[in-house]
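Hi Y.,

Following your request, here is the sequence exactly as I used it, all 391 residues.
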Amino acid sequence: MNEATSRDAVYSKMVELRRRFHRFPELAFHELRTAATIIEELQRLEIPYSYEGEGSAVVGRLGDGLGPTIALRADMDALPAEENTGLPFASEIPGRMHACGHDAHMSMLLGAAALLKAEPPPGNVRLVFQPAEEDGGGARVVLRSGALEEVAAIFGAHVTHHHPTGEIMVKRGTVTAQSDNFTVRVRGAGGHGARPHETTDAVVIVGMLITALQTLVSRRANPVHPTVVTIGRVEAGTAHNVIAEHAVMEGTIRTTDREVRDHVITGLRRMVDAMSALHDAEVKLEVAEGYPPLVNHPRETEIARRAANRVVGAERVSEDAHPSMGSEDFAYYLERIPGAYVRIGARGPMQSMVPLHSPEFTIDEAALGIGARWFACVAREALAELQGEVR
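Below is the corresponding structure, written out as tokens. Let me know if you'd prefer a different format.
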């Protein structure tokens, strides 16, 4: 089989797999059918693998164990969302959808596995299909499992509509933000809406906090470091003429600098304590630490860039000026292992820009071939460089 025919076959298989994944999305730590499809393809390619069951990663292994080892990662889980794409292969599971492109990531990595199997690179490759990126930090499960022992570098990618198909974004330094979630619970004293002086209004307290919290960004955060504080949910009250005794407010904090993060959270705690004292109410704050910032390593970033240049040409490789304020649990890998994370353009020429996590999100399937070739190429580039060090 010549190279062109082989690539056509690989691409056709990727499209088939992506559509299978898309039709049957599964949530974090419950990717059983998804894992079975991955295993079926690894078996077809005669690639050995390990899998410890529900909630764990599928890890394929290429190479004879001699020489350096690198890892390539794709995520398996979907989102709790109702699909609205109208695709003929739309989700068949109500309330679940691959709205973040993980179906594409898995297909790209399986395509890369086929390319690397056909032409083995100089070393070893771990193919990591990770559970629970969206919720639960499945990267930590992979790290605890020992699947990445002896891995010298790790690489990952994410599809995006912010770049058209045919472009790859490779960024130095911070790629995504730290994410922290918070909940504020207010307990006041309810009563009749006509006699507010007899009550402690939980809605007023929450309203003052919503306004005051904006100063955490405008006055507490160093303006050279991107920072976001968003209130996503507020719940209070039972009737139009009843002053609410209880209120709950939930939000997220996104920061790109550890010192700024500390300032923002400290400021949030002070505001909550001040509101409690000002209104003689019980105001409690809970902060749940999220994913850390994803920071690419310098050498691995240049390896990723070289691979991107080879796949799409240097003129189609870009670098965003600012980090994304989204978060990504690939960051946990980069705290332990040198590596880099890139974005693969997946907006087709006839597609309008649709954000990730939208019920209408889908990809231009031409991006699958680009992603597979980048994964295979970055593995070869990294192993060639590491082999040179060993010698």
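The mean pLDDT is 95.

Thanks again,
Q.
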